Amino acid sequence: MDTIPERTPSMLEDPPELDLGTAARLLRSEYGLDAEVTELRSERDRNFLADADGQRLVVKVSNSGDDPEQIAMECAAMDHVAVVDPGLPIPRVVPSIDGRAVVMVDAADGRKHQVRVMTVMPGQVADLAALPEWFAADFGAVAARLTRALQGFGHPAAYRRLDWDPRIVTSLRAYADRLPEEHRREPMLRLLDRFDGLDAATRALPGSVLHGDVTLSNVLMQDGGITGVIDFGDMHHTARVAELAISLTSLLRESNDLWADAGRFLDGYQRVLPLEPAEVELIGELVLARSAASVLISAWRAPLYPANEEYLTSLVAGSWRILDLLSAVEPAELAQRFHRLCGTSRVASAQAADPTLQVRREAALGGELSPLFYRQPLQVVRGEGAWIHTADGRRYLDAYNNVPVVGHAHPAVVQALSRQAAVLNLNSRYLHPNVVELAERLVASMPAGLDTCVFANSGSEANDLAWRMARVVTGRDGAIVADLSYHGVSEATAAFSTNTYPASARPAHVAVFEAPRDPADDGMAAAQRVRSARGELGRAGHDLALLAVDSVFSGAGILMPGSSFMRGLQDEARASGGLFLADEVQAGFGRGGQNLWRFQDFGLTPDFVTLGKPMGNGHPVAALITRREIAEAFVEVDEYFSTFGGNPVSCVAALTVLDVIEQTGLVARSGEVGAQLRAGLESLVPDLPVRGQGLMVGVEMPGAGDFAERLRDNGVLVGTTGPGGGVLKIRPPLIWESSHVEVFLSAFEAALR
After folding, report:
1. How far apart are CA 614 and CA 629, in angstroms?
2. 222-226-230 Cα angle (round to 5)
3. pLDDT (tens digit, 9 = 90+) per residue, 327-375?
4. Cβ-proximal residues to 98 (8 Å cutoff; 6+ apart), any chain
5. Rounded CA gap, 704 and 719, in Å?
6. Strand ranges (DSSP E) for 53-149?
7. Counting C-beta atoms within 10 Å of the first and last residue's C-beta, which end of the chain has fewer, N or C?
8. Which fold has domain 124-346?
9. Pairing of strands 55-61, 579-583
10. Which helix (H) or strand (E) is 276 found in, with range?
């Protein structure tokens, strides 16, 4: 038989022997109160209910095994919670006549006991009531609030051992042989083996000094709400997930639908305190451990106190029900069930390498309909700053993705997104400050006259809306775009994306002009190209409504037009009766290294500006900025509404991106780091064209696709663009620094070899 270890002192000492008369006399002498006193139930202490002229109080006589420092800690904790979260329904300590929180009393058992008097919380004890449907979620929320309120509390007495602590349930192994039902003993011993590493597993998890016993027997309810959390007698320093498991176990003992109630409790809890995946991993094990502790402690203590047997065995039936149900589930599957309830399963499972993923993707996503990068596709699992991590453990420098404009998983953006998502997300037909502030900031960054902002979910949608407005305002239905342009994936914008289909497939209402590949191309050349394209439209029975330009001409190979050429496009479009659109989806947010918007480098004043990809640092959000008279003319004959466009979560992501760009000087950094990048490339490939500005750089070279594969082998991710994919597309997050340029150039040099 296992040796019985050292036990919690108050579990060894008999409860205090104090009668009603002594309790009444104590109240009169120490507190100046004349009261009617009745006894309350308790396991280790002696508790009384006192009615003093209508004021209801609890007289708590602590077990002599309780350390005075522990009692002082409980009083201090209640005072702390009352300050941190005054709305939490907990008792208040009533001081004695001379101001003491604790007084001493001589009991009939010959021992001295510590006594406190506390206010009575209204309501019925939850474990004596039928639990209504709302209870589980409210119980979870109250448990989390108390945990949060105690996070800043500390006390030396908290570092103590408690037999009820589920983390150390294996210390109760000796009592397995005392279980009344003999057939339960051997399975219990096997189950305890499962918990050998539980204490160590919680050491790295969030923890603090906590209540230790937020259970149904210590929670009161009344009139559709929880009205009290009482009895701080089990306070100790513990992992917050162990504290959660104690509360959840208490609920599940009374549950008729364990998983449904567990979900409701965890929903309520996470509305207050979101859990870490590592915490969720252990919830099931800790619930099992707490249930095991209940039956083992009952087997130990019930025979010692037969007069209190009913109370000491009250948790046994419910605990065995939990043990029978959950212990039959493999630990990994049990953890997954709680991960799914808490929403933490996908993040954890997506970190593992999956050799079937590519085949499954091709089967479900249409194969070549949605092609992957690279001949051997990467399974990406994590991004951090300028780096992307893959499932095989490699780390790659991201020199391609402009969507995470301020870096992958930027902490400020993640905070903003998650906090807003935890509070509210819905469509923008309600008043909300996020959408208004974002519109104001975007309009303020634009030239005078661009005073109206409309939100969408993608650059394609923003460009599509600009096209709809242009057709209404001009009464025409023709568009002019650059050759090898890209403007989106909707039916309208796909027609403008001339790099995605052969020239023979171009619809009649779309005409193209030659992108400015010659530095000598000026305003006159631009005007002539617009006139020529307009003539093509006219011959097909159309006229110019909209001229759209990606101001870096990315699809054409990342070109460097002069200001004269760009103004020529704009001015000729207007002279022809059309409207001019600056597509900033790739070029905007400071990528050019001079201004927040690339069109500003050329001194343009567009009729439309569209923003997309990097706007939310990976969260789908886009915008169209235009003039009020254009918007008003449009709404006279049509309307626009996007369910998700301008929602609070998307807008707070975009606002945070703007904050980061402004506060960390990313526009200027893009110019400086981009200049270093171009200079380094020009020295490595002096015979090849290196084009671009800021952190949008292209290198025209034979076999660009093969070279991109070699760069990948050397730990750098790039793309290709231009005619035939013959231009390396280098478009990193704007947070690149000189050290990232050095890594890139080193990999580039290795790929050249």
Report:
1. 28
2. 105
3. 999 999 999 999 999 999 887 778 889 999 999 999 999 888 888 999 9
4. none
5. 9
6. 55-61, 93-94, 103-106, 112-119, 124-125
7. C
8. Aminoglycoside 3'-phosphotransferase; Chain: A, domain 2 (3.90.1200)
9. unpaired
10. none
Pick the CATH number of 9-74+90-119 from 1.10.287.80, 3.30.200.20, 1.10.8.60, 3.40.50.300: 3.30.200.20
Looking at residue 1, its pLDDT comes to: 44
pTM for this model (two decimals): 0.87
Which residues partner with 611 through β-bridges? 623
CA dist 168 and 552 (Å) reads 63
pLDDT of residue 8: 61
Q: Are 291 and 316 in contact (CB under 8 A)?
A: no
Looking at residue 131, the DSSP 8-state letter turns out to be P
Secondary structure class of 194 (helix, strand, coil): helix
Do 467 and 637 touch, CB atoms closer than 8 A?
no
3-state secondary structure 133-154: CCHHHHHHHHHHHHHHHCCCCC
Partner residues linked to 252 by β-bridges: none
List of E strands, 450-557: 452-456, 478-482, 510-513, 544-550
Give me Rg for the CA atoms of the chain: 35
What single letter denotes the amino acid at residue 603? Answer: G
Tell me the CATH architecture of domain 459-611.
3-Layer(aba) Sandwich (3.40)
Q: How many CB atoms lie within 10 A of CB 335?
A: 21
Distance CA 481, CA 610 (A): 15
CA distance 407 to 418: 17
User: Is-contact 122 216, C-beta < 8 A?
Assistant: no
- The tokens 């399975």 sit on which residue? 187
CATH code 3.40.50.2000 for 666-752: no
Q: How far is CA 408 from the centre of its chain?
A: 14
Q: Is the pLDDT of residue 211 over 60?
A: yes
Give bridge partners of residue 452 from the DSSP assignment: 626
CA distance 372 to 230: 58
Residue that is written with structure tokens 């975009």 in the block: 654
3-class state of residue 450 by DSSP = coil
What would the two tokens of residue 718 be? 């790039």
E strands, 325-467, are: 380-384, 387-390, 395-398, 452-456
Short-list 202, 343, 208, 204, CA closest to 274 = 343
- Tell me how far apart the alpha carbons of residues 463 and 99 are, in angstroms, rounded to a whole number: 73
The gap between the terminal CA atoms of the chain, to the nearest Å, is 71
- 707 vs 749: CA distance, rounded Å: 11
Dihedral, 598, 599, 600, 603 alpha carbons, nearest 10: 140
Phi, psi (deg, nearest 5) at residue 397 = -75, 125
Give the tokens for residue 214. 């937020």
φ, ψ (nearest 5 deg) of residue 657: -60, -45
pLDDT single digits (tens) 688-735: 999 999 999 999 999 999 999 999 999 999 999 999 999 999 999 999
Residue 47, classed as helix, strand or coil, is: strand
CA–CA gap between residue 131 and residue 124 (Å, rounded):
11
The Cα 163–Cα 172 span in angstroms is: 8
Mapping DSSP to helix (H, G, I), strand (E, B) and coil, where does residue 458 land?
A: coil
Domain ranges of the chain: 9-74+90-119, 124-346, 459-611, 666-752
